[in-house]
Amino acid sequence: MPNSVLAHLIKIQRDFLWGATEGKRKIAWVKWDAICCSKAKGGLGVPDLRRRNWAMLGKWWYRLGDGREGLWKRVVKDKYYDGEGEVSMIDVDTVRVSNIWGDIICVGGQSMKLKSMLVKGFRWEVGDGCRVSFWRDVWAGNKSLRDLCPRLFQLAEYKESKVKENGLWEGASWKWDLKWRRERLGREQDEEKKFWEVLGSVQLRQSVVDTWQWTHEIGGNYTVKTAYDYLESVDSLLEGHLCKLVWCGLVPSKVSFFGWRLCLDRLPTRWNLQKRGMVFQGDGMECGLCKEGVEDVNHLFCTCKLAWSVWVKVIRWWGLEVVMPDKVRDVADFFLWCLGHLVGKEMGACIFLVVAWYLWYWRNVLVFQKHGDFREQLLEVIQGKSFFWIRNKVEGCVFSFVQWQNNPVECAKELSRYKKSLKIFKQQQGRC
Q: Can you give the residue ranges of the Reverse transcriptase zinc-binding domain (predicted)?
């Protein structure tokens, strides 16, 4: 797929995610590579079209070297490789190739980092050594011998030779016989020791064809899925337990998306807006709830005295006492581990997300409508919404709203028991 088409499709995806319309731009709060990261690493798991395209192009690499014959392969071999020798996707001259074949070879153009990653994902399983380049292909260890022993490569007399051409069979045993331009000296001798250790770990097999292997799939067969996952180069954005918290199954997806942005500190607080060039008049950088302190996520959701009072009420509703942390992720950890230990991590994550969602809602009402003090009613709102969302997510909710208000711990335990029995029942039905 041409890069211009890919860029246009990605723009459509990005505009949809952040709510941009024609002629009206919106801030992209998270970089696109992070959004395309898997949920297990803290992303949204949105398919990365560019990476998917690269993974599919990589399949041509595998097909070209897998040993099976085909008309298309003979055409490519005759046109670009003079019909001689084995076809290599790594060292081919791209000056005289067509645009389509050039894109396949270069994997989407100028991404040398990606090409290097794909090269490292392939290796040869040596049989008789007829198809494998001794120095340039990866077949002994995880690197080519050219990269592993560069000094010896310079001394080699036949740099383009195949594996089979560097030794001979003595009965059923293979004996290496390499030709050098001169004797090895100094550091070359140290490198030669490592060189022979690597060769000693490989045993050639007579009458067995060399096979092209994809190292990230059991069996060595290339699949687009494993290549797509392998090419994911973004490091984890969130710790594993926070990923589970964000994607709690008891709240709507919009609340999970909000929680994801909260944990990444990508909400449009006044502090974050100022960092992106927004200028404020009037109240300036003051917190939208308490009008004291700079409005960043840690102040707005933790150290703000109004937010703090809401957290304390919610925690006491669950029969707990705690000294409130001053960072959002620490508050999330408390609900996931402390409350989660009491009633389950999913329920702890649910309560954290509901409270954070309504603190943000309250803040927006005060900032944009200039009225609405929900301080006294917010606990009831949180109780009502959490009950409503849980009831809609779990088939046949086993407790009433009054029970939820008066004894949430027992209700949560009862819900956990009900979900386990429901899971067992469905498994038994599946076996029948």
A: 222-311
Query: Which residues are bridge partners to 176 per DSSP?
Result: 167
Residue 132 has pLDDT above 80, yes or no: yes
Inter-residue contact 277 to 286 (CB < 8 Å): no
Crossing angle of the two packed helices 345-369 and 408-431, in degrees rounded to 10:
120
pLDDT in tens, 246-291: 888 889 999 999 999 999 999 999 999 888 887 666 557 888 888 8
| CA distances for 217 relative to 107, 223, 226, 230, 330, angstroms | 20, 8, 7, 10, 38
Q: On the CB side of 151, how many CA atoms lie within 13 Å of its CA? A: 14
- How far lies 7's CA from each of 10, 23, 99, in Å? 5, 18, 18
Give the Cα separation of 140 and 134 in Å (integer). Answer: 9
CA pair distance 413, 423, nearest whole angstrom: 15
Cα separation, 89 vs 92, whole angstroms: 6
**What is the percentage of the chain residues whose pLDDT exceeds 70?**
88
Q: Does pLDDT of 101 surpass 80? A: no
Which of the 8 DSSP states describes residue 281?
-
CA-to-CA separations, 23 to 6, 11, 16, 216, in angstroms, rounded: 21, 14, 14, 44
Phi/psi of residue 205, each to 5°? Answer: -130, 125
> Do strands 122-125 and 211-214 pair parallel, antiparallel, or not at all (unpaired)?
antiparallel
Residue that has been written with the tokens 């389509």 in this structure: 100
Angle at 146 between CA 144 and CA 151, to 5 degrees: 145
CA distance 52 to 234: 15
Paired strand residues for 123:
213
- As to burial, measured by CB atoms within 10 angstroms (0-12 exposed, 13-18 middle, 19+ buried), residue 107 is buried
Q: Spell 245-277 as b/e; 16+ CB within 10 A means b.
A: bbbbebbeeebbebbbbbbbebbebbbbbbeee
Q: Of 39, 51, 42, 38, nearest to 10 (Cα)? A: 51
